[in-house]
From TrEMBL:
This is Short-chain dehydrogenase/reductase SDR. Keywords: Oxidoreductase. InterPro entries: KR_dom, NAD(P)-bd_dom_sf, SDR_fam. Pfam families: adh_short. Residues 8-188 form the Ketoreductase domain.
Amino acid sequence: MKNENLKKYALITGGTSGIGLELAKLFAENNYHLILVARSLDALAQTKTMLTDQYAVEVLTFAQDLSKPGSAQAVYEFVKEQHIFVDILVNSAGQGEYGLFAQADLGRLLEIIQLNVAALTELTQLFLKDMLAHDKGKILQLGSIASEMPGPWQAVYHATKAFVLSLSEAIREEIADTQVSITVLEPGATDTDFFNKAGMTTSKIMDSKLSDPAKVAADGFKALMEGKDKVVSGLKNKIFVSASNILPDAAVAKQINKMQKPKE
């Protein structure tokens, strides 16, 4: 394997924009070679050029739409063909869809579940098996404070992120006696292209101060390296999550409804 000469590799899905891109920069700064997975060949090429110009690391790219069945397996097979052991897996790719559940396009909702749940689950298991075989490795899952609460106007997105948190916490306990760790990063509303892609620019939440993706990435990177189970990024979000954990789910859902419904 290429890792036999002490190279370290991080595989990052959704690594060409937003929090995923900021994480890619952090791993490059810390001498990790990168495998970036995204849908756009152009975005991958631009990101590769930017990273290799700034950092002395190898950047491999693989274009794949993870909202399609079979895509996660294709990513794994690509890595195996390169004879690379993935030291760190970052499941950063994810999308949402804004609107009332009953009025949403069902096909689009199922694509989001495929991306946020099915592909993440498949990638996690495939690479976790290799990590356990070597008794080393780390996994960073991009959750959300949405993982902690029901979310009217983004019902499926919140549900997928709750799945990510539950899955990861369970796996963490199952592998507690190994040298492999799994960490969930939980940001709040962050200044990325997520809202445009989700058709969410009319939501009241857009009037709030959005988090800096570089700061969110830094919080996730630190927690991952320290082997923590999860980190909520930002003091305001920590307070919000703590409060939501005390209140009944119905009360939390009512509050989220007020925050996320369309502007008047």
